[in-house]
Amino acid sequence: MSLNQIVLVFVLLFGFNSFISAQNTSVDRKELLKQSKQANKLYRNQDFEKSLLLSREVLKKALLLNDSVLLADSYNTIGSNYNEFSEFDKSIDYYKKALFYANKTLSDTLKFKTNNNLGNLYCFEKGQYKKGIQYYKKAIFYSKKIPNQTYTLLASLNLSWAYFDDSNFDEGLEFLNYSNANFNKYGNQSLSSVYQMINGMYYAHIVDYNRARIHFEKAIALGYEHNELNDVSYAHNEFSKMLFRSGNYKEAYIHLKKFDELKEKLYNEDKLFKASIAGLNLELDEYKRELTKVELIKDAQNQNLRKSKIIVILFVIVLFVLLMLIFTLIRNNIFKRKINRELTVANNDLLLAKEKAEEASQMKSQFVSTISHELRTPLYGVIGITNMLIDEYKDLSKSSHLSSLKFSARYLLSLVNDILQINKIEENRVVLESMTFNISDEIEMIIRSLSFLSQNNKNKIELSVDTNIPEYVIGDKLRFSQIIMNLISNALKFTKNGTVTITATLEKIEGSNNYIGFKVKDTGVGIADVDQDKIFDKFVQVGRNDTDYQGTGLGLSIVKRLLDLFGSDITLESALGEGTTFSFCIPFESDLEKTNELINNIRVDLSTSQIFKVLVVEDNRINQLVTKKIMEKNNYKCYVVDDGYEALKMLEKEIFDIILMDINMPLLNGFETTRLIRNKNIQTPIIALTAFDKEEIAEEALLAGLNDIIIKPFDQSKLFNAMSTLIHHTKNAG
After folding, report:
1. In a 3-state reduction of DSSP, which class is residue 510?
2. Distance (Å, rounded) from C-alpha 678 to C-alpha 673?
3. Which of 57, 197, 352, 496 could make an S-S bridge to 219, C-beta 3.0–4.6 Å?
4. Does residue 31 form part of some domain?
5. Is 19 among the domain residues?
6. Up-side HSE of residue 452: CA atoms within 13 Å toward CB?
7. How many whole angstroms separate alpha carbon 181 and alpha carbon 577?
8. What is the pLDDT of residues 419-459, one digit of tens each?
9. Among 550, 585, 581, 593, which residue's Cα sits nearest to residue 568?
10. CATH number at residue 16
């Protein structure tokens, strides 16, 4: 590096540090606290658009200050907004982030608020009462540390409501009794409507309809008086249920209608639509700022390169070396001609051998691809029909035979994917990608997906994640998940009545790279010393007998090869009868700016009650049945045709919102059908629903005019997200 380059780097670093310091000092914490309260007030006034915009501004500045109180409060407000949009999963994610930062503070009020919000969501939106009640009990724990006893009263009311809503009146009565004893002392106007409604629910349960009516009517009157319209709507709904049970159907209908009218008034579609586009202009300024910084650095580097004399010196040296090489080549040319004649025969033999090897490799890849397609097609039918049986015949959902069938089908699908994965790695067709993700969330999701295997062997899974690990890291999430899933599933197979422990520890930080060490430890049968050197080879299994089930021997081989791509090694410690521990370390990048970008990319995906028409082009009868059932279950109007010609005829008579196209069909395959559709200037989005590997058909699919590719068997949420995105994009473009 030249002197000019060194000076330039120091100037840029100093300037950037000065900019960050100036930015940090310009952030006024008192002003941010004021803005955070204002955002919460806007939310309570149902001005979701402004509340979301202001919360995001506070959040970005709070990240610069690393202020846990502001972060917790902002995430809480954002989560509340998403709750109003009925985006409950996103709301839970933000509430959990709020709880993460609240637990870092000394604020019992923040901890109470976040636990109470999570309790509300899990109980009344997700219907997961057991989980929601746990959060309510934590809220009560923190409320007792707060001087204002109104918080304890609020949590007690919520707990009694949750228990009553879950038909557990015996448990809920304890908290209702507390509320009745303390409401006059600690209650307020905003709680009065809910308090009367819960008493009404209890008396309705014990069939004291007269007292229940009194409480319900008080709840409705107080709600209107204090403008607590959300609480009034719930009171109308519960009152309607009681009237229906008592046989007063006409009055029950009146209150049910009032409940619907209030809900419609509270969740005005125009208000929610404005919130969905909130903040887009804020992102534009951020992008411009980043682009300007990159352009400045690039211009400085270009100017420095033009001025550098080192390039000229290197050019002269290279030219001299080339001249020497030419002279040497000319001198040795005669000698080489003689040697070349002798090598010609040998080279021809090598070329022939190489061609045969390449042909064999190509045939192997084609064979693997064909087999995977032929297996995925019936597996889609098996998995789909299994899910249909569970949905249609609830009594079969607990059948061990049906669970075994579903597990076996998914295991066979996993085997097909493993064979394809090892084939791609050997052919150097795997390139690591960069995605932003949360390590703890990813591992917890894998643990949940393996719950059947852990329960089958009566194992317990424990997870410990170092709190020093950044909330978000950048790396190949898919390959990391494959490594963790293979190691955990392997541990669960070889452990019975034991424990599998997963730990993640931040070992060191170098620049923007965080070196995170992982350990997967089990208390299973262990591995003998003589076998430890060969367990990472393909198709190798050790200690197998006729009574156990240990898979194909591909899992650890895939783990070893994927870790090679990460530039990491895996080690193991094991002894027979004492369990096994696998250890490895992966460097993940951590970038605050990219984390901010993730926050800036908050999108509100508003749901719709509109029924869309979908055309399914599929030649396999079983797959037709499965796909149609999935579509109709998710409120799509589904039409099915057997081949491409039938699809073209149908499109002449009907207009569809989206088309699901099989690729491998007789008469006219999916690519040819799509080309003919596009030639007719039909812009309806088309998704390839196929058993082919995505990488094999991606280029041809793009050229044919397909909009996306989903591999069978598929994750239903992934398919419907893709369908919804394409439908709305097409309608907005039109």
Report:
1. strand
2. 9
3. 197
4. yes
5. yes
6. 12
7. 59
8. 666 666 666 666 677 778 889 988 998 888 788 788 888 89
9. 585
10. 1.25.40.10
The reply to whether 516 falls in a domain is yes
Lookup: tokens for 602: 């908050």
Element (H, E) at 432: none
Predicted confidence (pLDDT) at residue 607 exceeds the cutoff of 50: no
Q: What angle do CA 48, 51, 52 make, to 5 degrees?
A: 85
Residue bearing tokens 């040296």: 317
Q: Which stretches of 427-476 are DSSP H helices? A: 439-449, 451-456
pTM of the shown model: 0.41
pLDDT tens-digit series, residues 281-329: 333 333 343 444 455 566 656 667 777 778 778 778 988 888 888 888 8
Q: State how far the Cα of 193 lies from the Cα of 436, in Å rounded to an integer.
A: 44
Q: Per-residue pLDDT tens for 124-152?
A: 888 899 999 999 999 999 998 898 889 99
- 625 and 515 belong to one structural domain: no
Distance from the Cα of residue 218 to its chain's centroid: 44
The DSSP H or E segment spanning 582 is: strand 579-589
- Residue-range definition of the domain harbouring residue 558: 435-600
Residue 687 has phi, psi (to 5 degrees) of -110, 130
Among 537, 473, 547, CA closest to 504: 473
C-alpha–C-alpha distance, residues 160 and 177, integer Å: 9
Residue 467, number of CB atoms within 10 A of its CB: 10
* Token pair 């994965």: residue: 421
List, in order, residues 6 or more apart from 323 with CB less than 8 Å away: none
